[in-house]
């Protein structure tokens, strides 16, 4: 059974940092690229960062480039998103996604106050 469990969200002031984690199980984590998405009510889910299966290639949405860092630990089946210099516009529910799995976790809420 595929499981993606996001954690690490919370309330932070603008300029602050958070580190999100995504614990994956039920599939071969090290064989697939992964991504972090975020969703604000009324908007489409937005891909903010992606990483290949071995962690050697990453890509970011322009809105987070230079502030967010995606990484992974294949030995722990865990995906991370380090978020620095947070802005109120980063407020959203954040989800992780495996490219080969058509499943979403429950997400973790990130709220950035101004």
Polypeptide structure, described:
The chain is mainly β and 114 residues long. A hairpin with a 4-residue loop joins strand 7 and strand 8. The protein is globular.
In short:
The protein is mainly beta and 114 residues long.
Q: Tell me, what's the shape?
A: globular
Percent strand equals over 45%
Biggest β-sheet description: 6 strands, mixed
- The number of distinct helices, counting runs of at least 4 residues, comes to 0
What's the overall average pLDDT, rounded? 97
| Straight-line N-to-C gap | 40 Å
Largest sheet, spatial ordering of strands: 2-10-9-4-5-6
Which spans of ≥5 residues are poorly predicted at pLDDT below 50? Answer: none
State the helicity in percent bands.
under 10%
Tally of DSSP β-strands: 10
**Secondary-structure element string:** EEEEEEEEEE
CA radius of gyration is 13 Å
Structural class: mainly beta
